[in-house]
Structure formats: C-alpha cells, structure tokens
Amino acid sequence: YDKVLRWSCQNSGDCETWNIEHKAELAHFLAHQDTEKPTVWHLHGYIEDASRIILTRDGYNLLYADNATEPLYQAALQTFRTLLSSHTLLFVGCSFNDEQIGMQLQGIASIFDGCIGPHYALIRDDEKASLKGLNLPVEPLLFSDFGQPFLDRLEELTRLAVEETVPAPPVVP
Q1: Any bridge partners for residue 139, and if so which?
Q2: For residue 109, which of 95, 89, 123 has the smallest C-alpha distance?
Q3: Which residue, among 68, 60, 117, has the nearest Cα to 88 in the 3D structure?
Q4: Whole-angstrom Cα distance, residue 16 to residue 35?
Q5: Which of 63, 87, 140, 170 has the least CB density, counted as fewest CB within 10 Å?
Q6: Which pLDDT score, from 0 to 100, does residue 16 have?
Q7: Is the pLDDT of residue 173 over 50?
Q8: Helix or strand or coil: residue 140?
Q9: Which pLDDT band holds residue 15 (cuts at 50, 70, 90)?
C-alpha cells in the first residue's frame, strides 16, 4: 500500500512523497498551509526507504515522546499534531491499535473539545467494529479486501476529491 496513493494521482509525477525527515517541506507546509503538489506523507516510513521505517517500540518512542531528543522527529511530531488539529486526514495502512497514534488523536481531540477533522481511515469491512471500539475521532471508509476492491475504493475517493475541488459553473438566470 506504500505506493498505491501515488498510483491514484492522475500523473504520478505530480505527487510528492515525504518521509519523517522532510523538515524543509514540513516547515513550508506549516507556514503556508498548502503544498505545491498532492502529497503523501509516510510518517512511519515507506518501503522505498526501508532504513527509516518505524516498526518497533523504540522507533515509536523516538517519534511520539514529548521529550524526544531527535530533532528530526520533533519536527514531524509537531507537524502531525498541527495537521490533526487543522486539516482532514486520510489514514491508509495505519494500525489504530498502536497506542501512540490513538493518544495523539485523542489528545488533540480533547484539547479542541472534539472540534477537529473529520479524519478518515481506509480500512477493510471486517475492521470497522475494531476501529469503532477504540473511540477515536476517525470515520471508517470501507473496502471489502485488498487488491482490486481496494484500488476501486481509492479510485472512487480520488474521483470524489477531484469533483469537490472543481469549482461549480456559474448559474446564469
């Protein structure tokens, strides 16, 4: 799934991919609240840069600890918290059973009395009850299975996003 969001861009060259260490891009985004291109942020890493994938408790602790000593990760954590409070996010390939993700979502939702997002997660139908049971401020967007059903759902979401960003034609009486 690391590459699937790039595939959803009409022209894959028009899509940026960020990892946890894209400090200049994160700072630009925070300053301007926009990106120059559609952007996929692999906060926990991605397959094309396997050495920076966060999979272990130690890695998660470096990213999510409030007293983190790694400056690269502090920039990522600050940006993530800002995004949670100011934008709608789509989580893909994210395990919400990870307590650190849940703590960030619930912490920001608590600070703003639940007035954040909405946030969405692309998950399989059989994971819906599990996500709902966690009481996170995340709405499920369901697909039946990986493979073609997942790609079809992603294409549908891409179509909806494009339709929403295209201005409506003026109404002439």
Answers
A1: 120
A2: 89
A3: 117
A4: 9
A5: 170
A6: 82
A7: no
A8: strand
A9: confident
| Mean pLDDT to the nearest integer, 42-53 | 81
Residue type, 155: E
Predicted structure pTM score: 0.78
Inter-residue contact 16 to 37 (CB < 8 Å) = yes
Residue 120 near residue 156 (C-beta atoms within 8 A): no
Residues 20/43, Cβ–Cβ less than 8 Å: yes
Q: What is the residue type of 87?
A: H
Q: How far apart are the first and last CA of the chain?
A: 47
Average of per-residue pLDDT across 44-61: 80
Do you know the residue count of the chain? 173
Q: Tokens at residue 9, please?
A: 């861009």
- b/e for 94-109, b at 16 or more Cβ within 10 A? bebeeeebbebbeebb
The Cα 103–Cα 110 span in angstroms is 10
Return the pLDDT at 72. 61
> Is-contact 64 100, C-beta < 8 A?
yes
Banded model confidence at residue 167, pLDDT cuts 50, 70, 90? low
Residue with tokens 């994938």, as numbered in its chain: 53
Q: How many CB atoms lie within 10 A of CB 5?
A: 22
* 8 A C-beta contact, residue 149 and residue 143: yes
